[in-house]
Design a protein that fits this description.
Number of strands: 10
Radius of gyration: 23 Å
Low-confidence stretches: 253-257
Distance between the termini: 44 Å
Largest sheet: 6 strands, parallel
Strand content: 15-25%
Shape: globular
Structural class: alpha/beta
Number of helices: 11
Helix content: 40-55%
């Protein structure tokens, strides 16, 4: 299949459409994570539909001192990867095509959720991101748009914008793709030296430590529920040497800190150790949040949550997250 390279909205709108159009928005420098998004889009669009990949490095979402100028531009390689993954077209507009007449005077504002975590670290970033996503949705006119869960706060804000502003498009989330050692795939990984990359692995290790602590806590709670605390049962357990194990299950399952506090503590221990490495990891934030608004959850929280981390290693800033479920649903 030949993948068309388009640079103007006029070229894109002139294409004859059959079936559903699925769009994957990127800033280029495509990797296997993007390929997974494109393959998912191909499945959703079906053989009669169309997959469009956008490649646009959006200046509005880069703040002062960030890496706009050094952000990798690899359009030829991007076109090849997109084609192999199943894209029908790559839409790579210029800045003038997306923002005719200069930076837009009217923009989408992310609101309170856009001021937390990534928004606090990168003021104005989410306003710029939502503005370009809104523009590209209008320019590409898709039936469905796919985004990676690695950028969890971005995904939540896009979903909120689509719902609040009545965009007629379905938003689909695709799970984070990781390298074999656990590092989340990112275009910025190429900036890391070998030593920096070893330090950067602390991000995923911290998330996995929090996840494993949560899983152990839930397993102990389940075990405690299965072990009645009656005197007769205790005597029977004692006879076969399990009373201590049963008592430990009850004690650990009901002890504090547990739940969210234990998850945060387990993750932070890994990050604190990484801060002493050479080169060190410089933590920006570790947060356990409600994905509905990205506020920190309390110890009595039940439902879906996101454990998120951001840090710098050398000059490179990286983010990662995993979903967790607290309470009966888990």
């Amino acid at each position: 299949m030949t993948t068309a390279l388009l640079s103007t909205a006029e070229e894109l709108h002139a294409r004859v459409r059959h079936g559903r159009r699925a769009v994957v928005m990127t800033m280029g420098a495509l990797h296997e994570g993007h390929a997974t998004l494109i393959r998912s889009a191909r499945e959703i669009a079906g053989p009669d539909g169309e997959v469009v990949v956008t490649v646009f490095v959006n200046p509005l979402q880069f703040g002062a001192g960030e890496d706009l100028d050094r952000y990798p531009r690899t359009l030829d390689a991007d076109l090849e990867l997109a084609g192999r993954a199943g894209a029908d077209a790559v839409f790579a507009p210029s800045v003038d095509e997306v923002y005719p007449g200069g930076e837009p005077q009217v923009r989408v504002t992310a609101g309170p959720m856009g001021e937390r975590l990534e928004g606090a670290s990168r003021p104005g970033h989410f306003d710029g991101m939502l503005t370009v996503v809104a523009k590209l949705l209008h320019l590409t006119r898709p039936d469905v748009a796919l985004f990676g869960q690695k950028d969890a706060q971005q995904l939540a804000l896009i979903r909120r914008m689509v719902r609040d502003l009545n965009f007629g498009v379905e938003i689909v989330a695709v799970p984070t793709v990781r390298e074999e050692d656990g590092l989340a795939l990112s275009s910025r990984n190429r900036y890391l030296s070998p030593d920096e990359r070893r330090t950067a692995l602390a991000l995923s290790r911290a998330l996995f430590a929090g996840r494993d602590r949560h899983a152990a806590q839930e397993a102990l709670r389940a075990r405690a529920r299965e072990v009645p605390s009656t005197h007769a049962r205790a005597e029977a357990l004692s006879a076969i040497g399990e009373s201590r194990a049963a008592a430990d299950a009850h004690a650990v399952a009901t002890a504090a800190p547990g739940g969210p506090a234990a998850v945060r503590a387990a993750a932070r221990q890994v990050l604190d150790e990484a801060a002493r490495l050479d080169p060190p990891l410089r933590l920006d934030y570790l947060a356990l949040v409600d994905p509905a608004d990205f506020t920190e959850i309390g110890d009595d929280f039940t439902g879906e949550a996101v454990l998120a981390v951001a840090a710098r290693v050398g000059a490179t800033r990286l983010i990662d997250n995993i979903p967790l479920t607290f309470g009966a649903a888990s």
